[in-house]
Design a protein that fits this description.
Elements (H helix, E strand, L loop, with lengths): L3 H13 L4 E5 L20 E3 L4 H13 L3 E6 L9 H8 L2 H4 L9 E6 L16 H7 L4 E3 L3 H13 L4 E6 L8
Helix pairs in contact: 1-6, 2-3
Protein backbone atom coordinates (compact mmCIF):
# COMPACT_ATOMS: atom_id res chain seq x y z
CA UNK A 1 0.00 0.00 0.00
CA UNK A 2 1.14 3.51 -0.72
CA UNK A 3 -0.22 6.75 0.63
CA UNK A 4 -1.69 9.41 -1.64
CA UNK A 5 1.03 12.01 -1.12
CA UNK A 6 3.80 9.46 -1.72
CA UNK A 7 2.09 8.47 -4.98
CA UNK A 8 2.16 12.13 -6.05
CA UNK A 9 5.81 12.48 -5.02
CA UNK A 10 6.78 9.37 -7.02
CA UNK A 11 4.77 10.62 -9.99
CA UNK A 12 6.64 13.94 -9.92
CA UNK A 13 9.95 12.06 -9.81
CA UNK A 14 8.83 9.96 -12.78
CA UNK A 15 7.95 13.11 -14.72
CA UNK A 16 11.30 14.72 -13.81
CA UNK A 17 13.21 11.87 -15.47
CA UNK A 18 12.65 13.80 -18.71
CA UNK A 19 15.22 16.62 -18.75
CA UNK A 20 12.82 18.78 -20.80
CA UNK A 21 10.29 18.65 -17.96
CA UNK A 22 10.06 21.83 -15.91
CA UNK A 23 7.91 22.50 -12.85
CA UNK A 24 6.60 25.99 -12.30
CA UNK A 25 4.43 27.84 -9.85
CA UNK A 26 4.80 29.43 -6.45
CA UNK A 27 6.07 27.52 -3.42
CA UNK A 28 7.92 25.26 -5.86
CA UNK A 29 11.49 26.09 -4.80
CA UNK A 30 10.76 27.61 -1.41
CA UNK A 31 8.21 27.10 1.32
CA UNK A 32 6.37 23.80 1.13
CA UNK A 33 7.80 22.81 -2.28
CA UNK A 34 4.33 21.88 -3.51
CA UNK A 35 3.33 20.33 -0.17
CA UNK A 36 6.58 18.36 -0.11
CA UNK A 37 5.93 16.62 -3.43
CA UNK A 38 8.83 18.32 -5.24
CA UNK A 39 11.56 18.03 -2.60
CA UNK A 40 13.57 15.50 -4.65
CA UNK A 41 13.19 17.27 -7.99
CA UNK A 42 16.44 18.90 -9.21
CA UNK A 43 16.49 22.67 -8.70
CA UNK A 44 17.34 23.26 -12.36
CA UNK A 45 13.94 21.78 -13.29
CA UNK A 46 11.98 24.12 -11.00
CA UNK A 47 10.96 27.71 -11.63
CA UNK A 48 9.57 29.79 -8.79
CA UNK A 49 7.03 32.33 -10.03
CA UNK A 50 5.14 35.23 -8.54
CA UNK A 51 1.57 34.64 -7.44
CA UNK A 52 0.20 35.41 -10.91
CA UNK A 53 -1.77 32.44 -12.19
CA UNK A 54 -2.55 33.77 -15.67
CA UNK A 55 1.13 34.64 -16.12
CA UNK A 56 2.26 31.20 -14.91
CA UNK A 57 0.01 29.49 -17.44
CA UNK A 58 1.15 31.82 -20.21
CA UNK A 59 4.79 31.06 -19.44
CA UNK A 60 4.01 27.33 -19.53
CA UNK A 61 2.36 27.69 -22.94
CA UNK A 62 5.40 29.55 -24.29
CA UNK A 63 7.76 26.96 -22.86
CA UNK A 64 5.71 24.13 -24.39
CA UNK A 65 5.91 25.85 -27.78
CA UNK A 66 9.71 25.82 -27.39
CA UNK A 67 9.87 22.07 -26.68
CA UNK A 68 9.72 22.03 -22.90
CA UNK A 69 7.18 19.92 -21.03
CA UNK A 70 5.86 22.16 -18.25
CA UNK A 71 4.07 21.04 -15.11
CA UNK A 72 2.14 23.95 -13.61
CA UNK A 73 1.32 23.72 -9.91
CA UNK A 74 -1.65 25.62 -8.50
CA UNK A 75 -1.58 25.39 -4.73
CA UNK A 76 -5.34 25.85 -4.58
CA UNK A 77 -7.82 24.78 -7.24
CA UNK A 78 -9.82 27.99 -6.92
CA UNK A 79 -6.78 30.07 -7.95
CA UNK A 80 -7.10 28.52 -11.41
CA UNK A 81 -10.05 30.81 -12.04
CA UNK A 82 -7.53 33.64 -12.40
CA UNK A 83 -5.86 31.64 -15.20
CA UNK A 84 -9.09 30.91 -17.09
CA UNK A 85 -8.15 33.08 -20.07
CA UNK A 86 -4.81 31.34 -20.58
CA UNK A 87 -6.25 27.87 -19.97
CA UNK A 88 -9.51 28.11 -21.93
CA UNK A 89 -8.69 30.57 -24.72
CA UNK A 90 -5.04 29.73 -25.38
CA UNK A 91 -3.80 26.42 -23.95
CA UNK A 92 -6.94 24.58 -25.03
CA UNK A 93 -7.26 26.25 -28.44
CA UNK A 94 -3.69 26.65 -29.72
CA UNK A 95 -3.72 23.35 -31.63
CA UNK A 96 -7.01 24.31 -33.28
CA UNK A 97 -5.92 27.90 -33.99
CA UNK A 98 -2.67 26.70 -35.58
CA UNK A 99 -4.41 24.05 -37.69
CA UNK A 100 -2.49 21.34 -35.83
CA UNK A 101 0.92 22.99 -36.25
CA UNK A 102 1.48 23.57 -32.55
CA UNK A 103 1.00 21.31 -29.54
CA UNK A 104 1.29 22.43 -25.95
CA UNK A 105 1.72 19.39 -23.69
CA UNK A 106 1.26 21.24 -20.40
CA UNK A 107 0.37 19.30 -17.27
CA UNK A 108 -1.70 21.32 -14.82
CA UNK A 109 -1.70 20.18 -11.18
CA UNK A 110 -4.14 21.71 -8.76
CA UNK A 111 -5.17 20.89 -5.23
CA UNK A 112 -8.67 21.14 -3.80
CA UNK A 113 -8.19 22.27 -0.20
CA UNK A 114 -9.40 20.30 2.79
CA UNK A 115 -11.48 21.44 5.74
CA UNK A 116 -9.19 19.73 8.28
CA UNK A 117 -6.93 20.07 10.18
CA UNK A 118 -7.09 23.81 9.45
CA UNK A 119 -10.07 25.26 7.65
CA UNK A 120 -8.64 27.57 4.96
CA UNK A 121 -11.95 29.30 4.29
CA UNK A 122 -14.76 28.65 1.83
CA UNK A 123 -12.95 29.92 -1.24
CA UNK A 124 -10.01 27.53 -0.81
CA UNK A 125 -12.05 24.31 -0.70
CA UNK A 126 -13.99 24.83 -3.92
CA UNK A 127 -13.80 22.19 -6.63
CA UNK A 128 -14.28 23.39 -10.20
CA UNK A 129 -13.39 20.08 -11.87
CA UNK A 130 -16.80 19.62 -13.49
CA UNK A 131 -16.73 23.19 -14.81
CA UNK A 132 -13.26 22.74 -16.30
CA UNK A 133 -14.36 19.50 -17.96
CA UNK A 134 -17.02 21.53 -19.76
CA UNK A 135 -14.65 24.37 -20.72
CA UNK A 136 -11.66 22.51 -22.19
CA UNK A 137 -11.26 19.71 -24.69
CA UNK A 138 -8.25 18.10 -23.00
CA UNK A 139 -8.64 15.55 -20.19
CA UNK A 140 -9.42 16.66 -16.63
CA UNK A 141 -8.79 13.89 -14.10
CA UNK A 142 -9.90 13.88 -10.48
CA UNK A 143 -7.41 11.92 -8.41
CA UNK A 144 -9.33 10.11 -5.69
CA UNK A 145 -6.82 7.40 -4.76
CA UNK A 146 -3.08 6.65 -4.98
CA UNK A 147 -3.93 4.33 -7.87
CA UNK A 148 -5.60 7.22 -9.72
CA UNK A 149 -2.54 9.37 -9.06
CA UNK A 150 -0.12 6.84 -10.57
CA UNK A 151 -2.40 5.96 -13.49
CA UNK A 152 -3.30 9.49 -14.56
CA UNK A 153 0.14 11.03 -14.12
CA UNK A 154 1.47 8.24 -16.34
CA UNK A 155 -1.22 9.11 -18.91
CA UNK A 156 -0.26 12.78 -18.65
CA UNK A 157 3.42 11.91 -19.15
CA UNK A 158 2.61 9.91 -22.28
CA UNK A 159 0.24 12.52 -23.74
CA UNK A 160 1.19 15.01 -26.43
CA UNK A 161 -1.77 17.13 -25.33
CA UNK A 162 -2.40 19.12 -22.19
CA UNK A 163 -3.83 17.36 -19.15
CA UNK A 164 -5.34 18.73 -15.92
CA UNK A 165 -5.02 16.69 -12.72
CA UNK A 166 -6.99 17.63 -9.63
CA UNK A 167 -5.56 16.43 -6.33
CA UNK A 168 -7.46 16.27 -3.04
CA UNK A 169 -5.61 17.75 -0.06
CA UNK A 170 -7.66 15.75 2.46
CA UNK A 171 -6.18 12.55 1.00
CA UNK A 172 -2.52 13.61 1.22
CA UNK A 173 -1.73 11.48 4.27
CA UNK A 174 -4.14 8.60 3.70
CA UNK A 175 -3.07 5.09 2.85
CA UNK A 176 -5.53 3.41 0.49
Amino acid sequence: MIDYKEAIKRSMEMLAEDENRVFLGYNICYGSKAYGTLTDIPDEQKIETPVAENLITGIAIGMALEGYKPVVFFERHDFMLIALDSIVNHLDKINLMSDGQFKTPVIIRATVGSKKPLYPGPQHIQDFSVSFKKMVSFPVYMLNSPQDVMKYYQKAKDSSDSVMLIERKELYNKVM
